[in-house]
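dude i think i finally got it to work??
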Amino acid sequence: MTADSPSDLKKQRFQLTRLIRPFLGGIIGLFLVYRLYVVLIVEHPYGPDTWTRLLIAGLILGGVYALIAIGYTLVYGILFMINFAHGDVMMIGAFGGFFVFEALNAIKIGQSNFLNTYPIISIIIAFLVGMFVAAATGYFLEKIAYRPLRKAPRLVPLISAIGASIFLENAAQLLFSPQLRNYVNPDILRRGAGWTIVINNSNVIVPYTGVFSFVLCMVLLVLLYTVVSKTRLGRAMRAVALDKKTAALMGVDVDRTISQTFILSGALAGAAGVMFCIHNGLVYYFTGFIPGIKAFTAAVLGGIGNLPGAMLGGLFLGVVESMGPAALGIDFQLKDVLAFVILIVILIFKPSGLLGESLSEEKV
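look at this
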């Protein structure tokens, strides 16, 4: 008898994996169905008003996740790397908006201040500054941390991205102190205020900050999709993502296109940071880490490298994170665990994501 060759053993392991995955998937699916039946049908602990509140919170959070996830997808589509510093770029943008609101709140105009006398102008300035400083951070990250390593093995830029994330967090801690800072909103975006709807004889508040954040997220996502699909920059980005060498031969400035991609993704992260803090009310040096990791989960969930997939993954993750603990009957403090369990399950059973992407050998 002859020993099996390495290729035969590899095929056997692959076939065994193909048999085990559906079995494990079936067990997980049955468990989820059982928990949903027990909580929703048997125990029935929550009414329609509570589910509505959870759905509203999930959509708001999902919109922010989708906006951040787009940044991961843009960078991955061109450089085939995960920019783990992207959440911290969001944090820098959030601080930009915070200091604008603080400065405008200190400018007195009669009995009021600039922030509440001209709230629309104040909000626009805060978003412009937050997006600008985040875009500049993304630009310099690419120049300093990623461009010199472009031809290095795939693991090297990933380690550089983790190092850049730690650097930005510690720099923010040194510059702005580690204390939690309260985001001072204009009166028209007061936290806790909103429209009231009555469901099941209970008042459900639809917050102004939440509606503003969700609508603005959707507008920015549509604008980005239009830019990538219809503009010259978008065509250059798609050409570089497909084949850098051929794109360069066709007249595309590859370095410039990559820099513009980081600027664009940084600007979106900055807008997400300002929106996130306007709604939640607090900012500090670690603000962007958890949302950034969850946005990466959303990007993988929708299909890394797929723009509509990142949007869908962000919204789906936000809703699941908000409603999942209640639906499964677990502690709400485990919502973060639930989000990362979803990431593990997706990587095991469908690594291409919900919408997926056909990966070439070069990307893999």
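The first strand starts at residue 108 and ends at 109.
im so relieved honestly
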